[in-house]
Amino acid sequence: MKKNNFYLFALLFVLGVAKVFAQTNARPVDPRALYIFSEDSLQGFDEHSASAAALANGCYGTEFKVFMFREKRRFINQKYNIQERPAYKPAFTPPVYTKSSALPSSGSCSNEDFEDATSGQIVAPGAVNGWVITSTSSGANFCNPPATFAANLYTVYNGPISDANIGAAAGSASIISSYFDAVSNTQPSGSCFIRLNDAFAGAKAVQMKKTFTVTPNNALFQYAFKAVIEDGGHSCCDQPGLKIRATITNTATSSSTVLACPQISVAVPGPSCVQPTNAATPAFLNGVSPWKYNNWFPSAIDLSPYIGFQVEIDVFAIDCSFSGHGAYVYFDAKCSPMTILGNGNSFPAGTPFINIPTCGAA
Question: Per-residue pLDDT tens for 84-109?
């Protein structure tokens, strides 16, 4: 009898641990999937057509329910002429415990490479000093990212890590380390880099931005990104993805312009989302299904025409809009002088004039 009780206790213990483990590792359920509209408000709603559209967009399970919620909400809003309220955004600056570290508009290009990090994996204000990182836990849309103001989703790493969603089969591609480091062929910068968002889907959007005044010493902004994204098989606006943009503000007139380059807008390619293939777009490789990734994709922005102006760099990592597929982005950056070489001498951008002897001159 005692032996049977022992086996029963052991079985209950194992089941309990399994349940806790499952709950701990389960993705959060999108509340839109649980919402029930009143029958009266849905009179006239074409359930059959909406269901067919959801399936055509690759929405199954929870994603199907979220898609149907969105279509029903749109139908009700149109039926009763209801105007959707804009997302609430608090007027105050997020306090320190949100792990944001805002620079004033006249800030310098400091800690652009996250080298203020002091240990292996960090989620703390000091590691992102000079950057502002905010997020939203719902309402992600690749084509129109929502306003972000809530708790942050990021991790700064000080040293190489292994990415399980890329997978060991990818070899060295699954080992992530700083792009601008002392052992690579790029200009030495350090060993740190950041990951925006996490591997859990949930219709989240994460925004990281940096604002600084352009000077001859930081007129070249170099950056590199490596995205790891689940392919949801949705249309482009509903797919997970990433965006990068740069905005220039004339300090004399306060007018702002989004630069035509870079404007990186990459949803993970799939059957319903065809992405252009060119030098400005990273190629995606297959990781552990349904994850895809691109190798480090470097680029640079020549800010020398804007010396004295302010620049804002924005980086977004966006889940799929139906909360079933995730996206996160590794990012590294480096500010450098933009220099001109003349007879072997370097002259920083913004130098008023350069006196270089011509060939044969004394």
Answer: 655 444 333 333 222 333 333 335 78
**Parallel/antiparallel/unpaired status of strands 345-348 and 310-318:** unpaired
Two tokens, residue 110:
């400091």
Q: Residue 288 has which token pair?
A: 């552990």
Cis peptide before 348 (omega within 30 of 0): no
Both tokens assigned to 220: 């070249």
**Distance between CA atoms of 187 and 362, rounded to whole angstroms?**
35
* Closest by Cα among 128, 114, 333 to 222: 333
DSSP assignment of 216-250: TTS-EEEEEEEEEEE-----GGGS-EEEEEEEEE-
Q: For tokens 């690749």, what's the residue?
A: 142
Q: Half-sphere exposure of 189 toward its Cβ, with a 13 Å CA cutoff?
A: 26
Instruction: Dig out the tokens for 341 from the structure.
Output: 């070489």
Segment (H or E) for 76: helix 62-79
Please report, for the chain, how many H helices and E strands are present, in that order: 3, 17
Model pTM score:
0.76
> What tokens were used for 51?
């269901």
Q: Which residue pairs from 258-263 have beta carbons closer than 8 angstroms and sit at least 24 positions apart in sequence? A: 259/301, 261/301, 262/299, 262/301
Helix pair 47-56, 62-79: axis angle to 10 deg: 130
Closest by Cα among 204, 321, 316, 206 to 273:
321
Run of H or E residues at 2: helix 2-25
